[in-house]
Design a protein that fits this description.
Number of helices: 20
Oligomer: single chain
Number of domains: 3
Mean pLDDT: 85
Strand content: 5-15%
CATH architecture of the largest domain: 3-Layer(aba) Sandwich
GO molecular function, one term: microtubule binding
Protein name: Dynamin-type G domain-containing protein
CATH class of the largest domain: Alpha Beta
Structural class: alpha/beta
Number of strands: 13
Shape: elongated
Pfam family, one: Dynamin_M
Low-confidence stretches: 1-6
Strand order of the largest sheet: 4-3-5-2-6-1-7-8-9
Largest sheet: 9 strands, mixed
Keywords: GTP-binding, Nucleotide-binding
Amino acid sequence: MLVAKSSQHETRHLIDQLRAVGLDKYIELPQIAVMGDTSSGKSSVLSALSGITFPSSGNLTTRCPTQLILTQSKKFSGTVRLLRFDPAVESLPPTPIHSIDEVTTYIESITQQLVDEGQSISDDAIEIKLHGPDFPDLTLTDLPGLVRSVGDHEDKAMISRVDKLVHRYLVQDRTVILAVVPANVDMHNTAIIQAAEEADPDGVRTISIITKPDLIDQGAEDAVVDLLLNRTKYRRLGYHVVKCRGQKALNNNESIQQGRDNESLFFDSHAVWSTVDKSLCGTGRLAEKLTRLLMDTVCKALPKVVAEIDVQLAACKDKLVILGEPMSTPAVRRATFMKNVRLVLDRLEGGVSGNYNDTLFEDTEYNNRLRARLRTAESEFQAAIEELSVVHASTVDTSTREVVVGDFVEVSIDVEWEVDQVTDVDGPTIVKTTKLSPSEWLHSSKWRFLPELDLSDLKHLMTSNRGDELPIFLSYSTFANVVRQRYVSKWRSPMLQLFETYQTLLRKFATRVIHSTKCKPRLELHLKQVAYTILEHLSNVAMVELDKIMETESRPYTLNQQLSQVLMRLRTQPLIDGLDALSRNNDANTVQAGAVKALLQSHAGIGKNTNEDQQAKELHLAIVAYMTVASKRFVDEIPMLLNTKYIRPFLSAMFNETSETADGVLDRVLMDNMADVERYQTLANQLKSLEAAKTLINAH
């Protein structure tokens, strides 16, 4: 352990050094704080312990905390200084003193300085360091006495200020409360005892010092003795009684040493006090007791203090990183601005290109992988376009058609339909066939006529739009109308849905990227406004381009060779499928000629198709072929346009807009407000104190 490696003397001084660098403002340090009501004899106790004559002029002698650091050494030396509570106000260096008598003058001078500054009660502290052969190894903090009333010309606010100051020490768990109470009053009703009991109800860190035992009425000593012996009100640290110089002795210029001698004589000769345990009486024994108590408190608290320093150091550094450096000059503001802009642009590029190496893309709360999310939306868009591009056509109703011998039909064999010729008929729905059912009658559920497309709607459309073209030629205008009205016009909805998804995902992603920089709120707001303005403009540009594509697609056009290939496949595939079916039903090298003839006639519509039927069939096949080619083009075209006209231009525009940001804008968005300046200074002071403390501990 840290304490075990060092002497107790050095450890106690380490705490004093930590207090000197202001660590006590952020972390509770072990200490003994002397408290009491006014006129409780508190100053006399301190004088007896230290040998210092504290000022006694005025109704309120102590106006601020006084840190009394006493060290036993061979030669006398000392310093006095005023430690400012506000870290922003620099404390003056210590002033050397050459005799103990000078201390009183310096205390009076510093106290007057505080009064001149308008501080009737101050959080600043007087630090007195004394080394000499007559001093105990002891550090005490003397606090102003609790006030119940003030004079006519004194500030009434002093009462609450003293209460607040004393309370700040009372509530610290590492502060031992040295409660000074006179023996000639009802001690349990004194302000300090009541305050101590409230802050330390179990009495584990309170030691009561009873003063003025010589003023107790004769015969009333037993009650005070019972209290001293811890019988009346138990306290773990107990009680101690001292007799210091009274006002009469002070008026007679009695020296501190004479006061100590008179105290010893009093406790040795008094009828009651001479019978009390000597370890509970006198300032000499009190100094020994407090020295042990302070060391015990320091040794127990120091490891926790060290741990708290580490915790606060890390937290303070994190807060300063979040707050950022002060924006004191245009150069600093621009450097900070560009640093944040570069981070934003890098993360935007990562999301757009699918390079997910940044920690931003490891966020479990939000999916920041923009390109992956856009690809998902594009796949949904592709599925929607493909579904809307399917050319549906019903088949001709053959329920009333009569079957005759010689017809070719499809017969259900093992869940598959295969072509065969009718050889016999028994009514309108019962047949026999050549190969598949030569001896068994097939009911209607087992056979069907060869399917024929019902293209009556297309024939009607061609009739209503007929021009000079012959029936053997397709009408481009009819073809274009069907493509535009029945298919391409329906592409607009999924296209707009994809565009809306692009807009939503990119805006939210940009928002999270900007927020992830943890930049100042006004800078974050500015960058968001820049991004949103760019996105709004690009949305309008992209929408115009999308409308152009829709307008272009409304006029069927392609040079893609796949159109003729798909069309030829659509024309021949039914014939190929029929021939495959015929070959499956016969020997490998034998196919019934009549079946082939019937299949060819059925496929070509010979003998039963009119000009309109054939033209409608060709139109249907042309539409299917074109939609196959055009839909594939469209599902590539839209995402490519959105990337080139919306996504990529956003990155370029963000770079251009931020690079050209004027100094005036940076002044507005990065100039520190007073709250930020004060917060930064507070954290910087805290960090300075914590780092100084860490250095002292490492050197200990």
